[in-house]
Amino acid sequence: MSKAIGMIEFKTTATGVTAADAMVKTSDVEIVEAQTVCPGKYIAIITGDLSAVKAAVDTAVTTYEDKCIDSFVLGNPHESLFPAIYGTTQVEEISALGILETYDAASIIEAADQAAKTAIVDLIELRIAKGMCGKSYMMITGEVSAVSASIDRAKELVAEKGMYLDSSVIAHPDKRMIDSLL
Fold it and tell me: How far is 30 from 23, CA to CA, in rounded Å?
């Protein structure tokens, strides 16, 4: 049995809460985060064994398909995802800064997981649709080549879903810019 996380993103709070309830009733999973995000969408992130998370997400998506924006299940998520989501990542130095922005909430987590698994980078922050009209972004750091490779791979992943909005890589960002971000 492997550890996994899953997420649902729904167009409405009512359907999202109902779908999240269905997920925890379907399988032995824990809710990590469940809340309304901009602009009135609802997200729920769950964790548990891979088969349980998959069954829970499948139930929610299948039952409420007409109001589902996006969903995912990640087996063996990168250990840096949750500190980046909660803004508790400690970054000592930023050599290069990578930013990737999406139209939805779910795809940014998948993109961040892929970026962290592509090259040696540190996830700085994942902003999940809060105060951004439903858009989301991630910031990563590392050596320029690693950040570029990770952003490129993450961009490919979200572009496949049609959720890619924008991205950039800044080599050696100015300290004043760094200080404004952290």
Answer: 9
Nearest to 6 by CA among 152, 106, 115, 146: 106
- Determine the Cα–Cα distance for residues 157 and 39; give it in Å rounded to an integer: 24
**Which has the closest alpha carbon to 107: 171, 43, 51, 55?**
43
Q: What is the pLDDT of residues 24-45, one digit of tens each?
A: 999 999 999 999 998 889 999 9
Whole-angstrom distance, CA of residue 159 vs CA of residue 141: 21
Taking the model in full, what pTM does it have?
0.85
> How many Cβ atoms sit within 10 Å of the Cβ of residue 171?
12
pLDDT classification of 173: cutoffs 50, 70, 90:
very high
Of 162, 81, 164, the closest CA to residue 117 belongs to 81
